[in-house]
Amino acid sequence: MVISKSKAVARLGTALTAAALVAPLVSAAGAGTAAAATRAANTTSFPRNETLYTSGTAGNSPNNFNPNDLGSLYTGTAGLLYEPLFLYDPIHNKYIPWLATSGSWSGDTYTIHVRSGVDWVSSPGGTVEGTLTGNDVAFSIDMAKTNSADPWNANVSTVKSVTASGNTVTVNFTSAPAYNSWQDYLWNAPVLPASVWSKLSATNQMTTANLTPVATGPMLLDATTSTQACYSLNPHWWGTAQLGLSFKFKYLCDEENSTNNQELSSVIADQVDWDNNFLPGVSALVNGALGGNSGYSIKTYFPTKPYMLSANTVWLEMNTSKAPMNNVNFRKAVAYGVNLEKIATNVYTGMVQTANPTGLLPNLDSFIDQSAVSKYGFSYNPTLAKKYLKASGYKGQKLTIEVPEGWTDWMAGIDSIASDLNAIGIHVSAIYPQYASRESDMIDGTYDMALDNNAQLDSSPWAYFERVYNLPILPKQEAQLNWERYSDPTAWQLVEEAGSTVPTDTAKLDSLYGQIETRFLQTLPEIPLWYNGAWFQGNTTQWTNYPSSTNPSDEYTPVMWHGYLGAMTTILGLAQLKPAA
What we know:
Mean pLDDT: 91
Strand content: 15-25%
Structural class: alpha+beta
Shape: globular
Number of helices: 19
Strand order of the largest sheet: 11-12-13-1-14-22-15
Number of strands: 24
Helix content: 25-40%
Number of domains: 3
CATH architecture of the largest domain: Roll
Distance between the termini: 41 Å
Radius of gyration: 24 Å
CATH topology of the largest domain: Dipeptide-binding Protein, domain 3
Low-confidence stretches: 1-42, 289-293
């Protein structure tokens, strides 16, 4: 599955109505000097016109560059330093050979052809420490298989053996390969140098801070402060000679994520060039929307609504182990009773899209059974909501809907949802527990309703439906699977069958996903609400040519969250940047 830093970043920020935007945005420009001073106190010294400053991704200090430690690794560890075998392009739904030049199935065997001419280079000095071979790839796969703490252990659960001969790696699977899990491994997992990581204990492979990394990526770890990590160009990067890719900046400095007001001020004040935080109201600065010409040089991926690519699906998650949430008519009443367009407009000022009734992200449109959506899908209809509510036998119980305190866009979202549901006769109160309490509620099943978005962008619907239907239901659902506690053995069997179907059998997969989507829409174990954005805003004062929907040659993911940088096409987007005139 995709594991992304966006899960935490996506919810930061103050949700504002459109009428309340002007004052904060205007005052933010004046606050730029203070924001710049705050950042400067913890900033290394690099030439401004040669440095790309980024922010909005890291929630911790830059003291860990271990690509296996997903909870602590700093921005750039995956992508700028370590690289995967393939990249996934979610905009065009295709895979791009990276450290592998190709990979193919033959029965239960997958063969990888490893790219030649790739150097292992140490940071910060830039010394070549060896050459990438098939042995490094085989070692990385075997480490994931044999070390249960490895974050990609589940992805290689059906691997029987892996061997290398030169730059050819042969991976033998059991008779029922987990195709989707393996595919996710290919474009998410980093390839590590066997000469370095084989000398570490199993524990240290997962926990070492790795402050002098040896990697293949386009940049070297140059310097850190308490709030910033800076990278410099790797002069030995294979991508320049083999793909013609080059960065026009010499340094990239990533700032630890700060408050949204400070982030917005820093972007406006030209202290941050590329920002991946949720900055409420930034849509008013795009194309001079504030009073014609705002005077700000801010770009987003789309020049108009929704401004942002979609990153994950926000669900209204109902605890189906409790009444009345266990009644399908009650869940349908809720689905028809919520005005999603109001949330998209008033809470997000047009910066998100309302979700397809299946919840599948736009990059998976080809997997959506449109006939099932047409027949069983839902939309805002209070009259129909009241009809389903009456059929549900709801007895007026007082219920709660929760999100963590401080996730202010979601707090505003559930305020709107509670208002809509009360209007149709469902007595719901919005509550905002601390994050740890909310997480405990979800794991223990002590909540009524909650918002969640743990199904991130992926290259197939499999991981999405795995999170909906995973069985068995445990007393503590700690893996973020089936938090709604819905039992549908038939649907889970279909999901398992899809996961073990070879990706080239598109007819069978279409049939399986069509059946799953039909059951989903008929029973609504989750209620898809909106797509959280892949938040991105770029200041064009120093750098131009940011990834954009309006440039067919630069439609790359403009996101440096883990799971995007190093797995999708963000590296290609960085290579397209140009100095401003």
